[in-house]
Write a structure and sequence with these properties.
8-stranded mixed beta sheet; Beta-lactamase; 20 strands; Lipocalin; alpha+beta; 10 helices; globular; 2 domains; disordered N terminus; 8-stranded antiparallel beta barrel
Length: about 450
C-alpha cells in the first residue's frame, strides 16, 4: 500500500536560480502534452505567482467508468492525502491562539488510555515525535484500512501498536498523531472536523471545492483513482472516513494554491504560529504540519500526499512568491518528477521534455554493466515501460528518456547513453564520464 506521505522533493540541477517574471506556460504545455499523449499521467495542475494563478492544466480523465466517463478539468476534486495534515495543523494553531489548548497540553487530557499519554504533547503529535504506532502503515495487513472501521476500532489499533520510541526521543512519520489531533479538535469545539474545515478555512478564504469527511467516490466531481494497466485499472483506495484529519480531504490544485498563499499571508494563523509550523528539524526538514522542500539552493515549504490511488504535491517557494499544486489520479510516470519538471520549467531552467519509449524499445538496454574504472556494477531493468538503474549496494533510480538511447536521472545529475551495437553504456555524473560494458549472460 502506498503510504499517505510521499517523499518530498529533492533536486540539485543548477548552482543558482534566478526567477523570471514570466512562467514558461508554453513549455509547461509541452510537458503535460507529452504525459497526456503517451498515457503517462492523469490529473490536474496549477501554478501561482504573487498570489495569482498563472497556469492551470488538466489531462486524462477524472472518471473512466463506462457509464460515467468524465474528462479531468479545473473543478475535478482529488483526494490530497497527507496535505490534509496541513489543514489539521492550521486548525490546531487557531485553537492555540484562542487559548483553548497549548503545544504543551498532554495527550492524557483527551486519551489517558494511550501508552505514554502523560508525556506526549500536542507538539509531539504535530511534529511526528510522539513515538506512537502508525495505524495506517504499521499493520502487516494493509488491506484493513480500505474497509470501514469505527472510531473505537481505529483508536484500539493505535493504543495496542508497538511504540517506536519515547516521546521526543526520535522522529518517525506518524499518521496516528493526526488522527488523534482530529478527534481532539472535535472534542474541544464540539463540531465535526468537516464543519471546522468549512467554517474556519474554506469559508474564510473562499475555497469552493475543498471538503472533508466524504465517503469514497460519493461526489460528482470526485476523481476516481486508477493504476497503470492496459488500459487504466480502477483502484480500491483507502476508506476515507478512516483517515479524517489525516489524509481524506477533497480539493483542487487551485484551491490548494489559495490555501497555501493565504497561510503564508497570515490570513489563517498568526505570524508566530506560521513560524512554528515551519520550524524545521532533522531528519527530513520536519515542522509542525509543514515540511521544508529543498529545491537547489532554495528551501520551499509544503507537503505531499499519497493514497493507494492518488498522488498530490503542494509547495510554495516563499522567496519568489511562486507556488505549485498538482493532483494525479493515474500515474505511469514518477509523481515527484512531475513536480520537479513543473518547478524547473517555472524557473525557466533548461529542461528536456521526456521521450517515452515502449517496453519493446527498452529491452535491448537491459542487463548488467561493469567498468574497468570502477569496482561497482550497474544493473538496468525495466518496470512496464520505465527503465530502472541500480548500482551495487545502492538504491534504484528511474531513468527518464530524453532521446531514443539517452536517459537521465535529474535529481542526482545522472545521464546515461547506450550503444546497442557495441553493447556499451556511457555513464555521466558530476562532470565525470565512465564507460561500462554489458556483461554476457551466464
Amino acid at each position: 500500500m502506498k503510504k499517505i506521505f510521499l517523499s518530498l522533493l529533492l533536486i540539485s540541477t543548477c548552482s543558482h536560480l534566478l526567477f523570471s517574471q514570466e512562467v514558461n506556460t508554453a513549455k509547461l504545455d509541452s510537458f503535460f502534452n507529452a504525459l497526456d499523449r503517451n498515457n503517462r499521467a492523469m490529473g490536474s495542475f496549477a501554478i501561482s505567482r504573487k498570489g495569482k494563478v498563472v497556469y492551470q492544466r488538466s489531462i486524462g480523465y477524472a472518471s473512466l467508468e463506462e457509464q460515467n466517463k468524465i474528462l479531468a478539468s479545473n473543478v475535478s476534486q482529488y483526494r490530497i492525502g497527507s496535505i490534509t495534515k496541513v489543514f489539521t495543523s492550521v486548525l490546531i494553531f487557531q485553537l492555540i491562539e484562542q487559548g483553548k489548548i497549548t503545544l504543551d497540553t498532554k495527550l492524557s487530557k483527551f486519551f489517558p488510555q494511550f501508552p505514554n499519554a502523560e508525556n506526549i504533547t500536542i507538539e509531539n503529535l504535530l511534529s511526528h515525535t510522539s513515538g506512537l504506532a502508525d495505524y495506517v502503515n504499521d499493520p502487516k495487513d494493509q488491506i484493513w484500512i480500505t474497509n470501514p472501521h469505527t472510531k473505537a476500532e481505529l483508536l484500539d489499533v493505535v493504543a495496542k501498536g508497538k511504540i517506536h520510541f519515547e516521546p521526543g526521543k526520535g522522529m518517525s512519520y506518524c499518521n496516528s498523531g493526526f488522527l488523534l489531533l482530529g478527534y481532539i479538535l472535535e472534542e474541544i469545539t464540539g463540531q465535526s472536523y468537516a464543519k471546522l474545515i468549512e467554517k474556519r478555512i474554506s469559508a474564510k478564504i473562499g475555497l469552493k471545492h475543498t471538503f472533508s469527511s466524504k465517503i469514497n467516490n460519493s461526489g460528482a466531481l470526485e476523481a476516481r483513482p486508477y493504476a497503470i494497466a492496459e488500459p487504466w485499472k480502477s483502484v480500491k483506495d483507502l476508506y476515507f472516513p478512516n483517515i479524517i484529519g489525516v489524509g481524506d480531504i477533497l480539493s483542487t490544485p487551485t484551491d490548494m494554491l489559495t490555501f497555501i498563499n493565504a497561510l503564508t499571508e497570515g490570513k489563517l494563523v498568526s505570524t508566530n504560529s506560521f513560524d512554528l509550523m515551519k520550524r524545521f528539524k532533522s531528519p527530513g526538514n520536519t515542522g509542525m504540519g509543514l515540511f521544508g522542500v529543498p529545491f537547489n539552493e532554495k528551501l520551499g515549504i509544503g507537503h505531499s500526499g499519497g493514497t493507494r490511488g492518488t498522488f498530490s504535491f503542494l509547495v510554495k517557494m516563499e522567496a519568489d512568491d511562486l507556488a505549485y499544486a498538482g493532483c494525479i489520479n493515474g500515474a505511469n510516470f514518477m509523481p515527484n518528477d512531475v513536480t520537479i519538471a513543473a518547478l524547473v520549467i517555472s524557473y525557466n531552467q533548461p529542461y528536456k521534455i521526456p521521450v517515452f519509449l515502449t517496453a519493446a524499445e527498452l529491452e535491448p538496454f537491459l542487463g548488467n554493466y561493469s567498468s574497468a574504472q570502477h569496482n561497482l556494477k550497474i544493473s538496468i531493468t525495466q518496470k512496464s515501460a520505465t527503465l530502472i538503474g541500480q548500482a551495487t549496494g545502492q538504491s534504484p533510480f528511474v531513468l527518464s528518456a530524453i532521446d531514443k538511447n539517452k536517459f537521465e536521472f535529474m535529481q542526482s545529475g545522472i545521464s546515461v547513453e547506450f550503444n546497442k551495437e557495441k553493447q556499451q553504456m556511457i555513464f555521466k555524473q558530476g562532470g565525470k564520464t565512465s564507460l561500462f560494458e554489458k556483461e554476457k549472460p551466464q
